[in-house]
Every structure is written in C-alpha cells, then in structure tokens.
Amino acid sequence: MTKGHASTGKPIPASPKSEDHIIVLGTTPAHERQFMDRLLSYCRRNPAFPIGLALLCFLVTFAGFGRLLWPVELAQPLSATPYLPPNAQNPFGTDTQGRDVLAVTIAGTWLTMRTGIIAAALGTVLGSALGFASGYFGGWVDNVVNWIVDVLLTVPAILILVVIAASIQGQLSSLSMAFIISLLAWRRPTRQVRSQVLVMRNMGYVDTARLSGMSGFEIIVRELVPNLLPYLVAVFVLAVSASILAAVGLQAMGLGPQNEPTLGMTVYWMMYYSAFLQGLWWWIVPPVFVIILLFVGFYMLSSGLDEFANPRLRQDIR
Amino acid sequence: MDLSRIIKRLVLTAFVFFGAATLNFFLPRFSGGDPIAERLAQLGDSGGTMSADALSAMIASYNERFGLDLPIWEQYLNYLWDMMRLDFGYSIAYFPTRVWTLIGQALPWTIGLMITTTLIAFLAGSFLGAFAVWRKNAMTGTLMPLMMVFAAVPFYLVGLLLIFFLGYQLRWFPTGGGFSPLVLPSWELDFAFNVLYHACLPAASIVLSSIGIWALAMRGMMVTVAGQDYMTFARARGLSDRRMFFSYGIRNAILPQVTTLGLALGQVVTGAILVEIVFSYPGLGNLLLQAVRGADYFTVYGIVMILVLTICFVTLVLDLIYPLLDPRVRQGAP
Questions:
Q1: What is the reported pTM?
Q2: Chain B neighbors of A154, CB-CB under 8 A
Q3: DSSP codes of every residue in B66-125
C-alpha cells in the first residue's frame, strides 16, 4: 500500500484482487496458445487495460493528427476574434485572448503529453538505476538511497516543485518543466524497482548466474533487467501519469510556461479571466474534458497492467 | 512499545524539516532571483516616479533590514534558527504583515475543509468498498467502475465540473469564496450556514474524487479478508451477518487503510490547495496562489514549511496510534 499515485498522491488502490487470477499469462497451457488468444483473454479479465489503452490512443491520435489537420498556430493569443462561441471557423470557439480553443486543445494535449513522457522517462531511468543498485547490492548503498527516498517521499512532490518553480518563474518552458518534474519523478520508480529486486536477487537463476562468475553489474543488466522489463513498463506508465498530474497542477497555479498553450496553463487562464462568470463554457469544457480523459486513461491502463507487470502477483498464483 | 520506530520517525521528521528549510534558503539564491529588488522594481514600475538611485538605496536598506547583507553562512544559520522558531518573517507583498498572520487567517479554512472531507471520504469509501465485496449486486457492480473514474481525476477538475454544472448552469450553489461577499464574519448561526453553504461544492469535489480511492483499496483488502479461515469459522459459529461484516470483516480489513489515511491526509493538503484555488476558497491554497502571483517568496516558503510540518506531524501521530489499532504491531509479532 505504500505505492501511490505520485504527487496527487492519490494512493493507488491495491490491485483488484479478484479470485479469477488463477489463469495467468505464463502458466502451463498459455505458451501453447496463440499470442492473440492470450491477449484477448487477458483483456477479458482486465477490461481496464483495453479501455485505458483505447482512451490514450484516442488522445494521441487527436493530438498527433490534429496538429497536421488543424493550424496549431491559432493557439497563440490574438490569432482570432476573442469571445467567439463555437462557429464554422472556430469549431470550439475562441477565448478571451483570441486563441482558437480547438488549436489550444490540440497543442495543449501534445505539449502536456510530451512533458509527462520526458519527465517520466528520465525519472524511470534514474529511478530504476538506483532501485537496481540499492536492491541488488544492499549495504550502505541501499541505506543511503532508502533514506533519501524516505525523506523525499514524506513531502508531496508538488510542494517541492512549487518552491522550485516559484523561484525560477518567468524562465519556465514546457521542456524545462519536464526536467524540473523529473527531479522528483525518480522516487517512486526507485522504491518500486528496489522492492522487486529484493525478491528476485534470491532466486535460483540469479544464484546460478552469480556462481557462473557474472559480476553484479552483469547480473543486473543481463538477468534482472530483462526479467523486470514488463514491470518497468508499468512503472513508466504510472510515472507518466504522475508527471502529467504534477505538471498540470503546477500550471493551474500559474507556475508554468506563460506563452505556451499547455492544458494546465489553459486551466490557469480560464480561472484568471473567470471564464465561468463570463459564461465561456466552450473554453472550459474541451481542455478539462481532455485532462480528465488523460487521467482516466492512464489510471485504467496502469491498473490493467498491474497483473501483467507484477512478477510477484504472477508467482503467488502458481 | 516500539521505541526505535518512533525515534526513527522523529529523526526522519528532523531531516525532512532541515532539508525543506535548506532548499527554501538556497534555491532563490542560486536561481538568481532577488525577491526584494524584484518587489521594489514592481512597486517602482507601478508608482512610476522612483529614480534608479532611490531604488538602489531602498534595496540596500531593505536588504539590511532582512539581513541579506550578511555572509551567506550567517544568513543560513539565522534562517535555520528562524525556521526552528517557526518565524517566517514578513510578507513581501503585504509588507508590514507577518507571514504568520496571513497563514493564521487561512489555516482554519483549510484544516476545516480538509479534515471533514477526508474523514467523510474515508468512512464512506471504506464502507462502500467493503460492502461491494459483501453484497455483490447490480448497484455495487455499477458503482465501482464509476468510482474508478472519479478516483483517477484530480480533486480540482471535479471541482471545475461541479462549478460548471451546479454553480454556473443550475445556480444551486455559490461558485466560489468562503462566505458571501456582503456578509461579515461573526459567530452567528446565519454566518455558520453561509459558510457551510459555500463549503458544499469544494467539499463535494474532494469527497467525490477521493471516495473511490478508499473504496477500491478497501475492496482489495476485504476480498482477502473474506477468504480467510476465521470468516468461515465465524459463519460456522452462527454469528450474525452484521457482526461478521463489522467485527470480523471491516475490523481486519481497515488496518492498512489507516496507514494510508496518514499518507492521504498529507496528500489531501496538496490536493486541497488546487481545490481552494479553483473555488477561491480563503484557505492556504489561495494564499499560496496569491503569494506565487505576487512573487511573495517568504509567504510561499512559509506555507510550504507549514504544510511539510503538518505532514510530518500527522505521520508521527499515526505511527504512535497504530499499535493501539492493530494488536499484532503492539505485540511485536511479524
């Protein structure tokens, strides 16, 4: 229960432990079946997985193709008449600053996803490296890493990020935000990978590798990493959603790129110009809807990946 | 009792506190920001008549007043000492006001909103989650996926939706503020109702989006507990369904939830920050937003320190009371 949705801090609920875990990937008859069959039966048992994947695919398509089909330059202020309700030229209308809301939503989805993926990639790589090292080698390395993670996990990321972002406000771009968020995005991956490695390092094949004269580094790279790869994917997905959460949260406070139409900044601007009081519903609904889809998609995907990714869950069942 | 655990927690708290203070101290100095110069330049811009000489003289005098002309290690020690006494100095934006005064005004709002909503969500969510395992029917079957959706969405987005539908479209609830603008704070019943009425939407957004988290976690625990031998035995003894549900099921399944409650209380603080901003609720979150907007660094750091301390304190208290709840921890069993 210590793992959580970094930075909102919503604790990730224990994976739905339904009793129908019993047939799992990798058990006896499974390797004989076709890959598609296994995938299908997996999806049937974990409907959250395909739903989450579909939602995210939809958003990626929306942001990716949207950029090609719709002029995203319109997301800059003063590119259209302000305060227009949805019309033929601006299907989602325009905001108080004359940005086209459709362009803002497309560009914002793109920027926000990019921020999350960069931050999470850096965080997962650094975190896994630390997690592998501290879990496998133990000793003082483990103590030091564990202490630092303990201290850092006590404080919600967003508080630290507020201090950092507030101190260098003004110079923030959506890229530099990704780097700032990655400063803290490694904490949970470290913890998660470490706890997996603690279990795996006592397994037979690791002993065999050790006896055959492999060095610790070799064992990590050639034995542990390949075995934990699915788990690392799940850790990464969780990290992306946590990073996006942190980015959108910071930006909604105004701590973000002032001249880039990210989703979080859009939320900030709509509060800044009291879009509600002015009744600009077309400015509010699309970005908020996209953010919600984004979070629900990631949440479903990562809870769907849980069984597939967690080697210990798989073992329990055997 | 487990003294070493408590000592470890205390040392950890001290580390967190020290780390946060150090970060607060060094960050602005390394990022090249000069709060006083920035603030005075802003004032100078809006005033329009200040000469460059007068400005630099003023900066020098302010720097002296805030002790910014001392060597950096001396400043650092002074700062740590101030932090230990919880002295956050003056707000830059509202100069003669001390940061503590600002925080003191905002804190009751945040605490009131947070504790109430967290407890409601905790109790209701845990009960619903447990009940969904106990009685599998169509209602609990549709409720759980719905909760999963809400659990994924951050508090403030649910808040935005509630403002939009209930506040703006239906006009059932006020869209922001802690009380009506024309009402004066007093200890009258009317004012209390006014405050409650304004708290409805912010509270609803926190409860709605966190109830699912509790429910899902509780469901996970309850599935495990329901399969235990002692449950079968309890049924064999002919205990009432109600007694089994509460004294055997919930009593055992709720323990991990209590640990999470501690973590969640800390997290709710930060979740509540954005909810307050969305609803312009007069708590710490809104104060933080104002401070960030006004480049009021001392207030920002003061708020962050207070929140960090709260979280450390709550974790400590939970560590202390946990053995009371779980006899297994008390007896030192594995």
A1: 0.82
A2: 12-13, 16, 266, 308, 311-312, 315
A3: TTTTS-HHHHHHHHHHHHHTT---B-STTTTSBHHHHHHHHHHHHHHHHHHHHHHHHHHH
